[in-house]
Design brief:
Amidase signature (AS) enzymes; 15 helices; 11-stranded mixed beta sheet; single chain; alpha/beta; globular
Length: 450
């Protein structure tokens, strides 16, 4: 058994059954990191000693305790904007070089309480936007893994860790997941706490995660969902057993096509997405072409304006703008554009948001989920200095509805392609159930890179 190939759910079950020890699993993943990360460059800090100590403690606990948490002994990584007690959290920026928090972010605390072991921190673009991270795409090392959750996607795809926390303000979790051929998930805005996460734009920041199966996406949500103090945008709303919900029998869904994103995608991505939809239709899905009374170009520009304005507000409040020389060029340029957003611009963008949110909500009364290609094109080459176009993932972050990306295969250059599903707010169980049906119907599991 190659332990680095285990998904979260498989690892948790193997540990519970005594088939795999937590120490053996951590050691296997550390060997995998040693073998592959020199080229992939996913990790900013590997917590080697801390993870091994936690695994030894877990083994001792297993000898005396039959009932353990749902992620007992399972390793995870965290994007380098999530506070982690005793480990560097630097947001990919000189501003925070050497910053070591004394407390864990709320989601890291929840994962540890469920028995999971933090294996380390993975690279992000500067302040989750800005300058690209050093990470590479495991399926083609000359191409970007996406961003800003670059290290999260690269580490999971390269089988260095079964789950990595990421974030999404525009497209920062689902785009890298798609580019790296894995599963990316973003819940409803207000479902999962952002306490202890370095922010970008408070109205749109979502905690997301990158895994290798829909079951693992559900298992992570099961642990992270729930109300607590520390995040003023967190909503006290009922949660479900998302693992059971995802695995419940599901008939073929009614799927609405977001035509704009098919029509304007690059040809390899468009053709792959249309072929995927055709396969789902042959399996019984009802496919509707959805007409949205939304100008998606205007929507994206409104999202960007609000995001930039809020990012400037936070950086000014923290005193970071007093040291512009510490920013990388692209981040400084982005913040400069943000200072040009006026109050009237922000209010106007908010009106676009309300129209967009209403339109999505109305269409989702007619279908179970909406579908589009996850990305506009394939992962760009590293020489382009880009992490890809966020516009295809943006609407779900803008309106705050849950979304997921699943791999569908490879395009030219051995670069992965994904399909994106989105659902009504607070309907994560429904979205996961349909995503599980899509996953089984497609039967796509990309091979381990290299």
């Amino acid at each position: 058994m190659n332990l680095h190939e285990l998904t979260m759910a498989q690892a948790a079950e193997a540990i519970r059954q005594g088939e795999v020890s937590p120490v053996a699993l951590i050691e296997a993943l550390l060997r995998r990191i040693d073998d592959t990360d020199g080229e992939v460059r996913a990790w900013s800090h590997v917590a080697r000693d801390e993870a091994l100590d936690a695994a030894r403690g877990a083994e001792a606990q297993l000898r005396h305790q039959a009932q353990v948490g749902p992620l007992f002994g399972v390793p995870f990584a965290a994007k380098d904007i999530f506070d982690s007690a005793g480990l560097p959290t630097e947001a990919g920026s000189e501003h925070y070089r050497g910053r070591v928090p004394t407390r864990d972010a709320a989601v890291i605390h929840r994962l540890k309480a469920a028995g999971a072991i933090l294996l380390g921190k993975v690279h992000t673009t500067e302040f989750a936007d800005g300058h690209p991270a050093p990470s590479r795409n495991p399926y083609n090392l000359l191409h970007s893994p996406g961003g800003s959750s670059a290290g999260s996607a690269a580490a999971v795809a390269a089988r260095m860790v079964p789950m990595a926390l990421g974030s999404q303000t525009v497209g920062s979790a689902l785009r890298p997941a798609s580019f790296c051929g894995v599963v990316g998930f973003k819940p409803t805005f207000g479902r999962v706490s952002r306490a202890g996460v370095i922010p970008m734009a408070h109205s749109f920041d979502h905690v997301g995660w990158i895994v290798r199966s829909v079951e693992d996406a559900a298992l992570t949500l099961q642990v992270l969902a729930g109300f607590e103090t520390g995040d003023p945008h967190l909503v006290d709303t009922p949660t479900e057993d998302y693992v059971i919900a995802a695995g419940q029998p599901s008939g073929p869904p009614r799927i609405g096509l977001l035509n704009y994103y098919f029509q304007h995608a690059d040809e390899p991505v468009r053709e792959a997405a249309l072929a995927t939809v055709e396969r789902l239709a042959k399996a019984g899905a009802i496919i509707d072409e959805v007409q949205m009374e939304v100008n998606f170009d205007e929507t994206f520009e409104a999202h960007r304006a609000m995001q930039m304005s809020e990012m400037v507000w936070w950086h000014r409040r923290e005193g970071l703008l007093d040291h512009m020389e510490r920013y990388r060029e692209r981040t400084a340029d982005f913040l400069g554009r943000g200072t040009a957003v006026t109050g009237a611009d922000y209010v106007g963008a908010g009106q676009v948001l309300e129209v967009t949110r209403s339109s999505f909500a109305e269409r989702l009364q007619e279908v179970d989920v909406l579908v589009s290609p996850t990305t506009s094109g394939l992962a760009p080459p590293l020489t382009a200095g880009s992490t890809g176009d966020p516009a295809w993932q943006s609407p779900w972050s803008f309106v705050g509805f849950p979304s997921i990306t699943l791999p569908t295969g490879f395009g030219p250059g051995h670069l992965p392609i994904g399909i994106q599903l989105g659902a009504s707010p607070w309907q994560e169980a429904k979205l996961l159930r349909i995503a599980y049906w899509v996953e089984r119907t497609l039967g796509v599991s990309l091979p381990t890179p290299r």
